[in-house]
Amino acid sequence: MVFKERKSREKGVIEEDRLLELHVYPGNFCNRDCSFCTVFGSPKGWYTEYTIEHLEATLKTVCLHENGTLKFYGGEPTLNHENVIWAIHYLREKGFRGSVVIYSNGIQAERLLQILDADPLDKTTASLNYSIATGDGASQMPKRSLQMLEAYELDHPGTIAIGHPDIVDSGRGVNPFTGEETRPVINSKCPRCYPVLTTEGKFHACPFAVENKAPHFQLGDAMATPAQISTNFKAFLNWLDTVHEPFAVEHNLPACTVCQQHLHQLPVPSFEGKKD
After folding, report:
1. Over the stretch 122-167, which tens digit does the pLDDT of each residue have?
2. Residue 10 belongs to some domain of the structure
3. Of 76, 68, 92, which Cα lies nearest the Cα of 127?
4. Is 4 helix (H, G, I), strand (E, B) or coil?
5. In this structure, are residues 118 and 85 in contact, taking their beta carbons and an 8 Å threshold?
6. Which residues pair with 19 in a beta bridge?
7. Residue range 73-124, pLDDT digits in tens
8. Which residue spans within the chain are E strands per DSSP?
């Protein structure tokens, strides 16, 4: 397989109350119903289009310069690729100069390639789901789709990557995953991903647990100031260090298992603007 795993960047970077990276999430509507899906994606999932209001909140929260990154994920972005293409153009017109990453299962390869080709700055890349791309623990994508994407990557090296093989103990993937036992399991230390802004207008602290409505993840809504979101994200990271990880280590639990099954035992981070 020609795809390579993309290296992670430094976590928790905030510049003048702007996040270096931000995930944008329109819901968990998907053309697959995978047993391991962390966001409970399925054809019965919910979906709300990207709007000007959502994108304006995005623009005031993420770094706009070349090192900033926006990650489009959720169910399956190619199911409404026109809206994704429109969103990328809007972000470019409003001054976002950073990278865009599309997380996709790759099944609708033609639409995914249309998204990649539509960026006027040519800085949109894709990350394919590991299991669906390789057939390790899931039904592999159609051969035609795989061949199209491999050919594109050969012509545009570094544009299409493959996701990590780690088994994330979150969402629907807690128990039924059927992948190889040799695949790594994330340990007691949270990967500390950057937050999510959903099209429902909510900032959520964790892209894996985005469908978890617990107050521990709620950083604010789309009307919050960038300072409030960055302050609350810092509070969440501090909570991970001082509360979450010590609990995971003490009980010998993977980090995501703590959030999936034991949040009721942990205090909520000290968020600014929290409503009682």
Report:
1. 999 999 999 999 998 889 999 999 999 999 999 999 999 998 876 5
2. no
3. 76
4. coil
5. yes
6. 14, 62
7. 999 999 999 999 999 999 999 999 999 999 999 999 999 999 999 999 999 9
8. 14-15, 18-19, 21-25, 69-72, 99-104, 124-128, 160-162, 196-198, 202-204, 218-221
Q: Is the pTM of this model over 0.90?
A: yes
Complete DSSP assignment for 182-245: TS-B--SS------EEETTSEEES-STTTT---GGGEEEETTS-HHHHHHHHHHHHHHIIIIIH
Residue 51, in any domain of the structure: yes
Q: 8-46: b or e for each residue (b if 16 or more CB lie within 10 Å)?
A: eeeeeebeeebbbbbbbbbbbbbebebebbbbbbbeebe
The 10 Å CB-count burial string (b at 16+, else e) for 206-231 is bbbbbbbeeebbbbbbbebebebbbb
- Specify the DSSP element, H or E, that contains 149: helix 143-155
- How far is CA 97 from each of CA 23, 68, 72, 137, rounded to the nearest angstrom? 16, 7, 16, 37
DSSP class of 165: -
CATH of the domain at 112: 3.20.20.70
DSSP state of 273: T
Residue pointed to by tokens 């800085």: 123
Is 11 within the bounds of a domain? no
Amino acid in position 245: E
- Structural domain including 121 reads 16-265
Secondary structure of residue 23 in the 3-state scheme = strand
Block residue for tokens 């409503």: 275
| Separation between Cα atoms, residue 84 and residue 178, nearest integer Å | 32
Number of structural domains, the chain? 1
CA-nearest of 83, 134, 82, 86 to 106 is 134
